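Before the break, one more example. Copy the sequence into your notebook; we will annotate it together after we see the structure.
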Amino acid sequence: MKNQFLPSGIRAIIIVFCFIITANLNIQAQTCEPYLGQSPPGITPEIFAPGIVSTPNTTEWSCTFSSDSTEMYFYRIDENWYCTLYSCAFENGAWTAPSEVDFSTGFSASEPCFTPNNQKLYFIWDNDLFDFPEYYFVERTENGLSDPVHAGQGMWLSSEANGQLYTTDMSSVSTTGKTYLAKIMTSNGVFESYDRITIQPNYGYQAHPGISPDGNYLLFDIDGGSHLFVSFKGPDGIWNIAIDLVDHGFDAMAGGAYISPDGKYLFFHLNGDIWWVDAEVVTKLNPYLGIGETSTPTKEIKLFQNVPNPCNTHTSIDFEIEKASIVSIEITDLSGKKVVELIKNKFYQQGKHSVIIDVSELQSGIYHYTLVTKKGDMISNKMVVI
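Here is what the structure looks like once it is written out:
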């Protein structure tokens, strides 16, 4: 009879091979699905995680995600304005259900904010030690989260990817009633000083800064947690005139903006729920696209830089479309206000086209032009200097 047993060396190779395959399958099975496994939104805002985070008969406000997308914190407000922090995490291949945190038990807690290195979690804690609720943080240790540490005054934290924190400076509220957007200088996590940010309009009535991870644009609201604006930082480091997002389709009651750590999504609160939308709805408004930056290219449309640029009286704009389409082109100023509509709902065949525009009536300055197809979701921005 033939030997039906494999040599020991071959058996060892097979065992190792099977172990590697099993390990890889386990790793794949436990790969984190970001954002609680929710399907990403497009350019139309959607309620985030309905029935899980945003639930009926409750009021959810702000949220924060760890930069590795494995943790989320948010808070709910009851009918007496008592705030409770909740967390959920990706563990053992799945997201846990939201549960109350234990480090803030006994006092109202709100407005969580992760640091980019995921080592600290800031939150407002109303523990009766100060006239106004102030920020505290817990820090990861080898034994879990630390006890809360007092950080300082502020309202609504957000952070750049490099760790630079932004907040609402509340130091003048009791005397003038005004609030200011500010950068925070810290030492070991404690707030040391505030550098107010000058952005027009509504200076002195701005709150809830939501900074982008790259620090190039800043969202805020002006009406007690509603009415969103966005300002973009220019090549000279100066913040441009803020653009009113209500003029670009946002509900006037939307507020409390937060940009995800990967820069892909904008979160905000509206009607008692947390909403999210593709960040492109904001980034496409950047008036400095075309000056050292480019917009995200599309597959079906190309918009070329106008020639000449700068220009005095006339300039030519070329564009190319892969499919016959109805096209509109408009020029807006730095505030996002439409100045002139160059083309309105005009039909063009597939191919490259050129239009000559008269800019002699426009005042000298920087503008940007936008091309939109009838679908409305294929948009590109370029700068024109007059």
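The first helix runs from residue 8 to 29. The chain has two domains: 35-284, 301-385. Try to locate both features in your own notes.
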